[in-house]
Design brief:
The complex is a heterodimer of chains A (356) and B (165). By secondary structure, chain A is mainly alpha-helical. Chain A contains 13 helices and two strands, in the order αααββαααααααααα. The radius of gyration of chain A is 21 Å and the shape is globular. Chain A starts with 7 loop residues before the first helix and ends with a helix. Chain B is α+β, with helices and mostly antiparallel strands and 165 residues long. Chain B is built from five helices and five strands. The chains are: A mainly alpha (356), B alpha+beta (165).
């Protein structure tokens, strides 16, 4: 019989944490839309949104309000329930992934209670991420299929095949890293990357597994449907792709889910490869400031890294042209998967060599 | 084939080199270009607050001029309407009555003077044709509007405000 140890404080703590994380993700995603427009603007010698509030900071609010008040249209012969389910699923899966990200180190209160800045420390953290990310493609697929539009259907087929091909390389690239860390728990992986400099070498995984990072990053871009891999919503061929028939806040959900996904996947990439909340000289800082402030600093550091990562993804979007479909498949199957396998082999050899 | 200009470039169709196929050096090069543009001068002007100066020969909305004493200069001679290639100008002449000398400069004046801004091509021929220096093209842009009727500018719309007596 399953015995669940319910604890009121525990439940309240997690409920607050979930609310904060989801709200934080929403706010970051909101301002990611603003940042995207600003980034594209400065890269194209423009100014970008600057009318709503100082520096256009209220622009996302205005956009959201506009989407809410738009007419909601359901195509005549769509499957209404599934049509509705699509954006909900996209949003849900986008938010779910954030559950396993460790946002900061534990804070132990004076009464000995450990405050954890992680919604769920499950020992299969990375597998959970993969599972939810693969669920994410259902949002796109169902939406595209239920729209009863050929472009949407084509786009959702594209999205599905792209997601499947790139998930493979993504998983394989991480295996090399997992061989090194020996754990699937994100919390464990972060604590292994303590500080910045381990006795002999950098402690962040990026410096130990640069190839894995490049493969993972590429696959993450493909999973996020971001340029250069945004074939599901490629305007020149498919009009708007899977959200062609969506209007009002349903469209908003799709667009928003993309940005939440970007935030969460940046957080996961930072956690896996760039030390999560770890930063150089963190031991000295920990001694200098009280516990809760230290946790706050760690969370800030993590968020700063995530923002940098998001900006980098945006810079790539406004730099590279879109891949052609055959090029995309070729890159996925013929380059990334073999590379990931080779990386595994090299990692295994190095681990053996060090072990001896 | 003989080359017509020296601007044509022979496209390099060699198979991609290894560094090109790896794509990452190209990505770095592209990122360097786009990130370099971050620090360049912006081409955009925040329009209503900042306005770009027009060229000195810019031809904008028409105005009907008055003389130094605030009297209308136009004598309804019709030369502007004749010069107009778009046939945008219509006018009706009237004779000045005694006691109206402070309103109109000469014995004849335009009782009705209309320019259809939807027809006007802002060529400025009316300005050149006018013997009385009455019609000018100003530096303001024609404002947008909702109805066709509102684009037919009456004399009251065109005349620069004078001293009301």
């Amino acid at each position: 019989m399953l015995f669940l140890n319910f604890n009121a404080a525990f439940i309240i703590e997690k409920a607050i944490l979930i609310t904060v994380v989801i709200l934080g993700a929403l706010v970051v995603a909101m301002y990611a839309t603003w940042a995207e427009r600003k980034v594209s603007a400065v890269m194209q010698d423009r100014i970008g949104p600057n009318r709503a509030g100082p520096f256009g900071l209220f622009q996302p609010l205005a956009d959201g309000m506009k989407l809410f008040f738009k007419e909601e249209i359901t195509p005549d012969r769509s499957t209404r329930f599934i049509f509705l389910l699509g954006p909900c699923l996209a949003m849900l899966t986008a938010c779910m992934t954030s559950a396993v990200v460790p946002w900061g180190p534990d804070y132990i209160t004076s009464s000995g209670y450990a405050l954890r800045f992680q919604v769920a420390d499950i020992n299969i953290g990375i597998l959970f991420v993969f599972g939810v990310v693969s669920l994410g493609v259902y949002g796109v697929m169902l939406g595209g299929w239920a729209s009863n539009n050929k472009f949407s259907l084509l786009s959702s087929i594209r999205a599905a095949s792209q997601a499947i091909s790139y998930e493979l390389a993504m998983g394989l690239s991480l295996i090399a890293m997992l061989m090194m860390t020996g754990s699937l728990s994100l919390r464990e992986i972060v604590s292994q990357q303590h500080g910045f400099w381990d006795i002999h070498y950098f402690s962040w995984n990026f410096f130990k597994q640069p190839l894995a990072f490049i493969i993972f990053f590429t696959c993450a871009l493909a999973e996020l449907n971001r340029t250069p891999f945004d074939l599901p919503e490629c305007d020149s061929e498919l009009n708007m792709g899977y959200h062609q028939e969506y209007s009002s806040m349903k469209l908003g959900f799709y667009l928003f889910a993309e940005y939440i996904n970007m935030f969460v996947s940046s957080a996961i990439m930072v956690t896996l490869f760039f030390g999560g909340y770890n930063f150089p000289f963190m031991d000295a800082v920990q001694e200098a400031v009280p516990g809760l402030a230290f946790s706050a600093i760690c969370i800030m550091v993590l968020l700063a890294k995530v923002v940098l990562m998001i900006l980098f993804i945006m810079a790539i979007r406004w730099t590279l042209p879109r891949f052609r479909y055959d090029q995309l498949m070729k890159l996925g199957w013929k380059s990334l998967i073999p590379l990931a396998l080779v990386n595994m082999l090299i990692t295994g050899a190095v681990i053996l060599w060090i072990g001896n | 084939m003989q080359k017509l200009t020296n601007k044509s470039i022979q496209i390099n169709r060699d198979p991609l080199t290894f560094s090109e196929r790896v794509y990452l050096p190209g990505l770095a090069k592209g990122l360097a270009i786009t990130l370099g543009h971050v620090f360049k001068k912006k081409a955009t002007v925040s329009y209503p607050e900042v306005k770009r100066p027009f060229s000195p020969v810019f031809r904008g909305l028409h105005i009907l001029n008055r003389d130094e004493e605030g009297r209308e200069r136009c004598t309804a001679c019709g030369l502007c309407a004749l010069a107009c290639p778009a046939e945008a100008i219509t006018m009706e002449a009237a004779e000045r009555k005694p006691g109206e000398e402070h309103l109109y400069r000469e014995e004849k004046y335009a009782a009705r003077y209309e320019i259809n801004m939807l027809r006007c091509i802002f060529c400025g021929y009316c300005e050149e044709a006018c013997p009385k220096d009455a019609v000018y093209l100003s530096e303001s842009v024609m404002p947008a509007n909702y109805t066709r009727e509102s684009f037919i500018y009456k004399k009251e719309d065109l005349l620069i405000p004078g001293n009301k007596k």
